[in-house]
Amino acid sequence: MNKIHFSADLFRFLDDLRRDNRREWFEANRARYERYAREPMLAFIADFAPRLKQISPRFIADPRPSGGSMFRIYRDVRFSADKKPYKTHVAARFAHVMGRDAHAPGFYIHLEPGSVFFGAGIWHPDAATLGKIRDSIVTHPARWKRVKNDSQFQKHWTLEGDTLSRPPRGYDPKHPLIEDLKRKDFTAFSNLGEAEACSARFLDQFTAACSAAAPLMQFLTKALDLQF
């Protein structure tokens, strides 16, 4: 029988936190955070781990409470004009074992009032990484088109992200895949609702979406000389 990981209490907690984003409020409501956000997400990560291993053994689902797949609730406010101390969402990232920073390929899950979504791909890669992906598209155009046009991929995902307004330097402006070569992000997103997040089918939905994104992730890892 499938487990329900998240409840409406999670979204109520996050909405209340958004309304009163202060340390005093958070400390008074820490038990709610532990019960409805942290513990359910860590359980979700642990339950997803064997499923992710079936998709690719080189992506990591780490349920440790610190330093694992779950993002911290605390915001980094050092360089931000917004000094609110807490994020108003709960999220986790399942990164490649050889590249665990935010700019390496990975799967992502995001839970926020009014914004529940899955993510896959690579966000804001540096220039060298971006060049490798673009070069791989030029070298293997048929393989890239198979990724984009795969019926299961299109069922679950939409390619989104920042793009250049002009063709990147060094690439043929008339290349048939120029719109993809203009991408600055190679990210796919799947939008859901709060009711789905609170369903016993949510883990199955995430697993199915990640499986459908496997061709994209395989393309990206190979372009970066990583194993899938």
Describe this structure in words.
This protein is α+β, with helices and mostly antiparallel strands and 228 residues long. The chain has one domain (8-223): 2-Layer Sandwich (BirA Bifunctional Protein, domain 2), CATH 3.30.930.20. 44% of the residues lie in helices and 14% in strands. It is built from ten helices and five strands. The chain has helices at 8-19, 23-28, 30-55, 127-139, 141-149, 151-156, 178-181, 194-197, 202-212, 214-223, and strands spanning 90-95, 106-112, 115-122, 158-160, 186-192. Strands 1-2-3-5-4 form a five-stranded antiparallel sheet. Helix 3 (30-55) packs across helix 9. The radius of gyration is 19 Å and the shape is globular. The two termini are 31 Å apart.
Short précis:
This protein has 228 residues and is of the alpha+beta class. Helix content is 44%, strand content 14%.
